[in-house]
Amino acid sequence: MKVGFLAGDGRTIRTGLLSAISRVASLGLEALREIFDESAYQRFLDRSRLESSATAYAIFQQENEQAKSSRPRCC
Amino acid sequence: MPKILRVLLWTAISLLGALALATIALHRGEQINALWLVVAAVSSYAVGYRFYSSFISAKVLALDPLRATPAERLNNGRDFLPTNKWVVFGHHFAAIAGPGPLVGPVLAAQFGYLPGTLWIIAGAVLGGCVQDFVILLFSVRRDGKSLTEMAKSEIGPTGGVVAYVAVIGIIVILLGATALIVVNALKSSPWGTFTIAMTMPIALLMGVYLRRIRPGRVLETSVLGFILVLAAIVGGQWVSETPAWAAVFTLTGPTLAMLIIVYGFAASSLPVWLLLAPRDYLSTFVKLGTISLLAVGIVALRPSLHMPPLTRFADGTGPVFAGTIFPFAFITIACGAISGFHSLISSGTTPKLIRRETETRLVGYGGMLAESMVAIMAMIAASILQPGVYFAVNSPAGIVGQAPEAAAAAITAWGFPVTAAQMATLAHAVGEQTLYNRTGGAPAFAVGMAQIFSNTLGGHALMALWYHFAIMFEALFILTIIDAGTRVGRFMLQDALGHIWKPLGRTSWYPSILFTSAAVVAAWGNFLWQGVKDPLGGINSLWPLFGICNQLLATVALCVATVIIVKTGRARYVLVTLLPLCWLVAVTFTASWHKVLDPNPRVGFLAHAGQLAAARANPRLIFNDRLDAAVTGVLSVMVALILIESGLECARIISGSKSAATKEAPFVMTRMAREEQL
After folding, report:
1. Among B49, B353, B471, B638, which is most exposed with the fewest C-beta within 10 angstroms?
2. For residue range B373-386, what is the model confidence (pLDDT) as tens digits?
3. Of B331, B350, B352, which is closest to residue B554 (Cα–Cα)?
4. Residues A41, A73: one domain?
C-alpha cells in the first residue's frame, strides 16, 4: 500500500487517506473512552461478568471512587 | 524516506524555527503575526522531540523495548493495564493540562511577549519535558512508585519527608491561588456567576442520567451536559439583563470566597458521586474541546500581537505582579515550561498504563510539549489585546485606583494608551459592567479568547457569549481542581495522621473525614481569604508563592532523577537533568530571597508586613505576610536539605565509597515482543 501510495495511484491514495483518517478517528475515540472511564467500566463488566445496569454502574463507581479521588489534578 | 530527504527536511524545520525565533526576538516597532510564535514553538518542539528526546532515550535512559513494564507484569485490569500509547498520551495530557499554562503566560505578558515565549519554548524542551519523561520512566522501572516513594528510597528519608511536605504545600497554595482566580473572574458578574452556579444542577442531572438512564455512557452524557452548559451561558445573558435576577447573582469577592470554601469542604467530606464525577467529566470534555478550538481559531485568524516584545515593566515595577524578569518570569510561568506538579502525574496513574518502555518518550516528553503549546496559545491570547486594555484588566485597584478615568489615565501615563470610554465599550461588548481590576489572568485570557473566537465565528455580536464561554471554561475546571485537590490533600493528611493515631488514617471513618477535610480547606481557604482582602489584588503575593512551590517540587523531582542517573552508572550524561536543576535552583532560591527579604514592600513579604505595621494596619494582614514569608522560607530550607543530601549521595557513589544500588524492579522479558513477531 505504501508503494502504491507513493506511486500516486489516485484510488490508492484515496483508500490510504481514508484508512489513515479512520485509524486516527478510532484511536481518538479509544482515547476519549479511556479518559472518560467508559473503557474502565467495560473492563469492570467483563471482569465481574455483569450486564450493564444501574446497579452494576453503582458498584463500578463505588469501586473506583477512592482511586479516582486520590488522583492529583495538575495546575 | 531516503536519508538525504530526511536530512533536508530536518534542516528546513530547524532553519524555519531559527527564522521564527529570530523574528520574535529581534523584531521591534511593528506588530508581528501570532503565527511566528506558533512556528517558533512547533519547529523547536519538533527538533527537541526528534533529536533531544531520542538522545535521552538511547544514551541516558537506555529504554529497553524488551523489558516488561508494570502494566504488563502486574496487569489487574484496573490500575495496571497495558494501554495503547496514544490513549495513554491523551490520558496523561488531560491530567497535566490545568489552568496554570493559561494563567501564567497571561500574567507574565506584562513583561511583553518575548521573555515568556522564549522561556516557555526553551523551558519545555530542555527542562519540563525532560523532567516528565525521566520521572515517568523511573517510575515505570519501579512498579509505578510515586515521587515521594522514589525520593525516600533513592535519596534517603529526608528526601521522602521534603517531597511529602512540598506536595502538601503546593496543593494548599495551588488551591488558594486558583480559587482566587475564580473569585476575581466572577465578582460583580451575574452572567458568569449564574453560568457556574448552573453547572451544579447540570452535573446532578448528568449524574442521574449516567446512573439510572444510560449507565456508563459518559461521553454521551458529557455531550448532553455540554449542550446544557451552552444553554446556561445563553440564559446568563437574560439573567444579567433582568434586574431582579441580576441582583441575586451579583456577588462580592468575600461572598464568593465563602461559597467556594463551603463548596470545597462539602466536595471533600460528602459522598457526592452524583455531583463530582459528572462535573469532572464535563470539565475534561470542555477543556479538551476548548483547547482544540483555540488552536484552530489562532491558525484560522492569524491575529497580530499588539503587546510589544518587551515592556518597561522588565525593571520590576509591573502592576500585575512586582519583580524583575529574572527570576519572576520563570516562576510565574511554571506549567507551560516546567512544573513540579507534573512529576506527581508522571509517577501516579500514567506509569501503570505504559505498555512498552519506549512509549514513555511519546507520553512523557510529547505530553509536556502539547502542554507547552497550550501556554503559547495563552501568551498569544494575552498579547493580541491592546496593551492598555491588558493593563486595565489586570491591574489591581491598589495600583491604578478604582475610578475608571483615574485608572485609564494612570495606564496611559505608563505609555499604554487606553480610555475609560474604550473600556466601557469593551465591557459592554462582553456583557460585563466593568473590566477594571480583574486581576488573576482569567478575565484577560477570556477577553483575548473571545476576540479570537468572535473574529473567527459569529462576529462582534457573539463576543459576549464567547467571553462567558471562556470564563465558564476556566472556572469550571478550576472548581474541579479545587474539589479533586481538596480530596487528595485530605487523603494525604489522613495517611500522615494515621501514623500518629490509627483511626485518623481510616479514609472511611467520618470524624477523620470531617477533621481532615476541615484542616485542608482551612489551609487553602486562609490563602484565598488573604488574596480576596489584599488591596493589591492577591495575585501579587499568591501566584509567585505558588510558582516558587511548584518549581521547588520540580527541583525535588530533578534531584531524584539526577541521583538515579548517577546510580545507574551514566554520570557522564548527568547534565541532562543537572542543568535544568541548576537553573531551577538559581530561579527558585533567588525568587524566595526576594519574596522574603526584598526591601521593596511590593516584592518582599516582610517589608510589606513592616510597612503595614508602621501604618497600624489590620494585624491580620500583617500576619498573612509573615505567614507567606514563613512558608517560602521553610520550603526553601527543606529543598536545600534535599539538594545537599542528593549531592552527598552522588559524591559517595562517584567516589566509590558507596555502592550504586538503585531500587529498580528486576528485569523481566516482555511477552509482547514475541506476540508482535508472531
Report:
1. B49
2. 999 999 999 999 99
3. B331
4. yes
